[in-house]
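idk why but the lab printer keeps eating my pages so im just putting this in chat instead. protein + zinc ion:
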Amino acid sequence: MQQTFHECRSAYENCRIILTTKHNKAVAIHPAFKEILSAEVVTCEADTDQLGTFSGEVDREGTALECVRRKCELGMGLMSTMYGLASEGSFGPHPTIPFFPCDYEILYFCDHVRGFRLHESLLSEKTNYRTASVASIDDLERFAEKSQFPSHALIVRPNDWHDRTVIYKGIQSEVELHEAFRQCVNQSEDGKIWVETDMRAHMNPTRMAVIAELAVKLGRRLATECPSCNTPGWGIVRFEKGLQCEYCNLPTELVSEEIYGCVSCSFSERLERSDGVKSASQRYCAWCNP
Ligand SMILES: [Zn+2]
Ligand SMILES: [Zn+2]
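predcted complex ->
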C-alpha cells in the first residue's frame, strides 16, 4: 500500500483491536489495519441482532451512528478491551441521484487508552441492494439474476408479514430459493412474496469490498498524528464553503477549504482543496447564473 504509512511507527503496532460482528467482517477490515497500522483485528461474535436487523425482525433504534457506537461498546465490554471497532451499513436510494441504490457504511473506532472515538464513512454506489414483491417464480428468478445470486444471498418472506418468524435468510442455492418461494407464497394472503438482497456482510461480497475500502480510509486516518499533540486520528473534520467564482470572484456554495482537526486537542489547520480546484465555474455562481 502507500509507503508513507509504513515510514512512521503506528500508535497501534501489535495492538489487539476488538471488532464486534456476527458477520465475519474481520475479513474486510483486518488486512487494511494490519498493513497500515500493524494492528491485529480480533473478532468478538456478540449477538448484534439485538440492536436491529436489516430484514426488519428487530427494528434498529436511533441513527446508524448511535447503533454502531452501541455495537462497539457491547464487544469492548464483553472482551474488557481498550480498543474497539464496529461497522454499520444503511441501504437505500442515493441522496442526490434518484432511484439509484447506494450503500452508506460507517466504521467506528474507540480508543479507551487515549480517550477518543472516531468514525469514517463512505457512500458507495457499488451495491446490489434491491427489494421487490413478486407473485411468480419467473419474476423471482429475474430478480435473483439482477442481484448476482447465488454469489450474493437473498432473503424471502411472505408479502403480508403477520408472523415475523416466517423468513428465509441467507438463501444461496436454487433449491433453497424455490422452497422459500413455495412456503412463503402459501402463507401470504395476497399470494405474493417479498424478496430482498441479503445485505449482511458475510452474504454479500460487494458490501464486504465496500467495508474493506472504508477500512483503508479509517486505517490511514489512525496512522496520521496530530501535528500539535501527536494523538492519532488527525484528518478532515469539516469543509468550508465559499469557493470563488472564476468570473466575478464572489463566493459560491462550493467547498473552498478542508479543515483538518484533532480528536483530542483543539488544534486545527485550514488547507486548500486537496483536489487542486481553485475557483468555481460561473454556473455555480448566484450572481453570474442566478
Ligand atoms: Zn460569478
Ligand atoms: Zn492534537
